[in-house]
Amino acid sequence: MKVLVLNCGSSSLKYQLIDMTNESVLCKGLVERIGIDGSVLKHEKPGLDGKHIVETPMKDHKDAINHVLSAVVDEKVGAVKDMKEIDAVGHRIVHGGEKFASSAVLTDEVIAAIEGVSDLAPLHNPANLMGVEACKAILPDVVQVAVFDTAFHQTMPEKTFLYGLPYELYTKYGVRRYGFHGTSHMYVTQRAAEMLGKAPEDLRIITCHLGNGASIAAVDHGKCLDTSMGLTPLEGLIMGTRCGDIDPAIIPFVMKKENLDADGVDKLMNKQSGVYGMTGISSDFRDIEDAANNGDKKAINALEAYIQRVKKYIGAYAAEMNGVDAVVFTAGLGENSISMRADICKDMEFLGINIDEEKNNVRGKDTVISTEDSKVKVLLIPTNEELMIARDTVKLAK
Fold first, then answer.
1. Where along this sequence does the record place binding of Mg(2+) (predicted)?
2. At the top level of CATH, which class does the domain 2-148 belong to?
3. Which is it for the CA torsion 189, 204, 240, 163, positive or negative?
């Protein structure tokens, strides 16, 4: 069975075509600047020398998906001969609200329900649905499946997801913690259990998805007990451009001082904060690390603050689960920054965390990086959200 996995942003689209008989990636790519001057498709295929690049105007997601499918079936760079070989399409949907605790076939009712919670993810859900509508128009007879970022976190109990706000805000508007990156947290949880030779139900795992967007989850015996992101992806850790946890009173204070409206302060917290706002250098942690190595005080402070927040969540989640058996690092920063993993695990011996410097000297590879005698196993696992989406799509398509 061949599954096309789509991840649509407001002006971008990532895709993979996966053969689920052996879970191999037949081809993959990225479309950027959809609806903007300079639209471009970058297509890759195993054995292909370099990337196949198509620069042509793409006015909307339907245009972009048409170009994706043309590349997928292209005689020279494609992976299949005919679109009929695509058996199902799996779509990443960011927000499913409380309605979806698992993936779902995209019926008219499911699409309406996704639209109903789009005000909780106004930057993401409408873009995700553009991809759904485009695929339905181009591949009308192919099963379409929604895989939700929020679904894995729906096992959180009320004591975890409720805020200290009037209860009516929850019942009327759904104001509660939802959590994100759920597909990634679920994948690395399952992979960590495999690597340790145990079932997820036998482990207490803290999963650290550390990228430009970042979140941590407490996975207690296979189920999410808590996670750092909240109603939106703004809560939790300091990120590339997001502020993470702050005193809520800062918002009206800054609004008055800077004469900002709601959109202005939202932009400030989501787009102008994080390590970018703290340093004025970049939202890319590699740039921040370079600056810190050259003695930039703001960069040093930003990295130290970031590390402190990650440590705080690991400690809190260990307390919440009455212990921890494994800590997992994943996503761009978690997979590739040797120094960041080492600094986060430093002085955590009281929890039973001991990192092996030699084993930790690795990037982007499934590896146990803790010492042999470390009570808590520390793992590096590259995330694979596309594969998780494909697996769920196959289950539902069948």
1. 7, 385
2. alpha beta
3. positive
Extents of the domains making up the chain: 2-148, 198-380
Identical topology for domains 2-148 and 198-380: yes
The answer to whether 336 is a known ligand-binding residue is yes
Query: Does 244 carry a binding-site annotation?
Result: no
Ligand-binding annotation for 209, yes or no, is yes
Known binding residue 384? Answer is no
Does the annotation count 245 as an active-site position? no
Q: 17-24: list long-range contacts, CB under 8 Å, 24+ apart.
A: 17/72, 17/79, 17/80, 17/86, 18/386, 18/387, 18/390, 20/390, 20/391, 20/394, 23/387, 23/390
Q: Which CATH number fits domain 198-380: 3.40.50.2020, 3.30.420.40, 3.40.50.150, 3.30.360.10?
A: 3.30.420.40
**Does the annotation flag 194 for ligand binding?**
no
Rg value, the chain, Cα: 21
What is the distance between the alpha carbons of residues 213 and 258, in angstroms, rounded to a whole number?
26
* pLDDT tens per residue, range 236-251: 999 999 999 999 999 9
Residue 204 · residue 324 · CB < 8 Å: yes
Question: What is the structure's pLDDT at 35?
Answer: 84
Q: Are strands 24-32 and 13-19 parallel, antiparallel or unpaired?
A: antiparallel
Q: Minimal CA–CA distance to 348: which of 306, 300, 314? A: 314
For 260-319, write each residue's pLDDT tens digit: 999 999 999 988 999 999 999 988 888 999 999 999 999 999 999 999 999 999 999 999
DSSP code per residue over 277-333? HHHSS-S-HHHHHHHHHTT-HHHHHHHHHHHHHHHHHHHHHHHHTTS-SEEEEEHHH
Residue 334 marked ligand-binding: yes
Catalytic residue among 149, 220, 226, 343: 149
Question: Which residues fall within 8 angstroms of residue 119, CB to CB, at 6 or more apart?
Answer: none
User: What is the model's pTM?
Assistant: 0.90
